[in-house]
Amino acid sequence: MARLFLSVIVLSGFLATVTRSVVAQKPVALNRDLVKVAAVQINGYDKGELRRDGYQPEDSYVPYIDRAGKDGAQLVVFPEYVLGHISVPGLETTKISAAAKANSIYVAVGSWEVFADETFANTILIFGRDGEIVGKYRKTHAAIDHFDGSPPWAHPPAGKTREWMLKNDPEWIMEAGQELPVFEFDFGKVGILTCYDGWFPEPARVLSLKGAELILWMNGRGGAVEDYIVRSTMFQSHVAMITTNQAYGSGTMIGDNARSKTGLLARCPDKEESYISATINLKRIRQQRASSRNFQQRRPDLYGPLVAPKESLNPAGGRPNVRR
Q: pTM above the 0.85 mark?
């Protein structure tokens, strides 16, 4: 009888522990209206920088993912190509995956995704709450720095090896993206722009018309991400925005013109490593989109020139590489 009584006590204690564990792990109801997000201004691999021994920048990103998780953020965004030239999946993505899963948070981070044939793309990786890679966006507009001939920017510099291109102007030979996808997160619809993509008005507008409520504009440049582009995009296309840049630059911001007269809720200090978070009002964004006079009175019948090729500025053979 004594043994039976002791067994009952032990079993009761075990069940209580299991119950507490289940309660502790019970997910908090997701608020799709007010969504907290985070952005990190931090260095990593640079545009023309190849992998080097002993440098694993992803190790410094994991603490920020943990911080965003503890902060209650649903998404944390890093800059463009900071993971460097990597295979996907690989050791680097495994570390990010584990942190995303541990914090049940979406993570967006940039890389040079290397394919089996050694070609590569400027790829933004999206990790889901379960740590799986749930989406990829490949940069569609190549930010090239050198050229030959006329008109400018139409032809790559002549006589340069692949190694030279990798170190000096990799986007001439990268596999450019061929679509502008909108990703379904559990809290809303998200589109992505990578650096130079954001200098064109059409991609952001297309993403908005395809349903994007939040646009991530991820950069890796020494200057500042332009806040006037962010403000005008949010105003004209009824979206919230998160921008990021490497810490040698500036302009990492969170914007939501539904909640602020300036449109900006938070901004990192210039040219230093920093973390910011803010709550965006997606409910208000959705209301704006549903009742937009701008959307209702569009005249697509007048916009044909937007999609007509401008051959004089984009001659055949002058475009960066394209992966079909």
A: yes
Residue 156 lies in a domain: yes
Tell whether 52 and 101 lie within a shared domain.
yes
CATH of the domain at 80: 3.60.110.10
- Phi and psi at residue 189, to the nearest 5°: -100, 130
Secondary structure class of 281 (helix, strand, coil): strand
* Other C-beta atoms lying within 10 Å of the C-beta of residue 131: 20
For residue 171, the enclosing domain spans 142-175
Q: Are 271 and 281 in contact (CB under 8 A)?
A: no
Do both 256 and 152 map to the same domain? no
Distances (CA, A) of 116 to 85, 86, 113, 119: 12, 11, 10, 7
Nearest residue to 123 (alpha-carbon basis) of 76, 80, 179 = 80
Closest by CA position to 282, among listed 182, 217, 188:
188
Q: Is the distance from CB of 275 to CB of 64 less than 8 angstroms? A: yes
| Per-residue pLDDT tens digits for 15-44 | 343 333 333 333 557 999 999 999 999 999
| CB proximity list for 50: less than 8 A, separation 6 or greater | 84, 85, 166, 167
Query: Mean pLDDT lowest for which of 136-140, 184-188, 318-322?
Result: 318-322
64: CB partners within 8 A, 6+ apart: 38, 40, 42, 76, 78, 275
pLDDT digits (tens, 9 = 90+) for 217-239: 999 999 999 999 999 999 999 99
Number of structural domains (the chain) is 2
> Is 74 a member of any domain?
yes
